[in-house]
Amino acid sequence: MILTVTLNTALDITYRVRALRPHTSHRVTEVTERPGGKGLNVARVLAALGHEVTATGFAGGATGRSLRDQLARTPGVVDALVPVEGATRRTVAVVDGTTGDTTQLNEPGPVIAPAEWSAFLDAYEDLVASAAAVALCGSLPPGVPVGAYAQLVRTARAVGAPVLLDTSGEPLRRGVAARPDIVKPNADELAELTGSHDPSVATRDARRRGAHTVVASLGAQGLLAVNAEGRWRAVPPRRIQGNPTGAGDSAAAGLLAGLVEHLPWPQRLARAAALSAATVLAPVAGEFDRRTYEELLDQVAVTGEATAA
Ligand code: TA6
Fold first, then answer.
1. pLDDT tens digit string along 287-305?
2. Residue ranges of the domains in the chain?
3. CATH no., domain 2-306
4. Ligand 1: which atom is nearest the Cα of residue 109?
5. Ligand 1 in contact with 51 (CB < 6 A)?
6. What is the pLDDT of residues 40-68, one digit of tens each?
């Protein structure tokens, strides 16, 4: 199974309005609620691709119950979330029906007590022992140590489970130093980590800091993967317009699926780019239309080359 970790799970609420204007009251035309937080989106996409997934992290309160009820109805995802006293946060995405632009509001999440963090670490140690790969994704809720991801990377590496890390700021900086197999920052996260806005310079620097492979998501310029074996770029066939929430999570799912299926890097990257684009075209994060994904997969252009041995 693939283990996904979402320390700051969320009940993702998406509101659609006809047109979003400041200083105005809006009628919501459509509401959706989904289990969210980056790792749970990764889990849902992997399960839709036919992989067995175990999802851990924290859940609590009425929002946590609602999230777990929905997860129980998601085929292929085993719920291994650790219960906590505080309530799981909500995130709100407001989609402007005229322009398609999305405005995202993320609550900070519940305060995690030291005993809850210890209970999670015990559960994680058991789960990671039988994981084919691990995804560590999203922000940290208050109370979780800033070096949490570094610790979780080290635990996974100690039992030989490959790790993908997708986070930002100081948790990313410390996590990268623990030598994860893949980091998947977007352009802003990569620039914040390395101090460079040049993707070539920044990916090289992120590798020097400890990541084996850096996969940078560069919006319309697609995905750039750099590791000791080579350097590749995957670009979707056209500019994809829609709701970008969760596009990066779907790319992470594509990379993990390719990893456990031992696909060569160009194919992994093509999958990640096609899944990401298919999610932008879907109404909410963590979902995609299978046919759209397969059509896009045929059209993704991958360029680059392996390093000469
Ligand atoms: O990537 C989209 C998304 O995963 C949303 O589903 C939402 O839950 C949010 O990001 C969480 O991100 P954060 O960085 O706050 O953990």
1. 899 999 999 999 999 998 7
2. 2-306
3. 3.40.1190.20
4. 15
5. no
6. 999 999 999 999 999 999 999 999 999 99
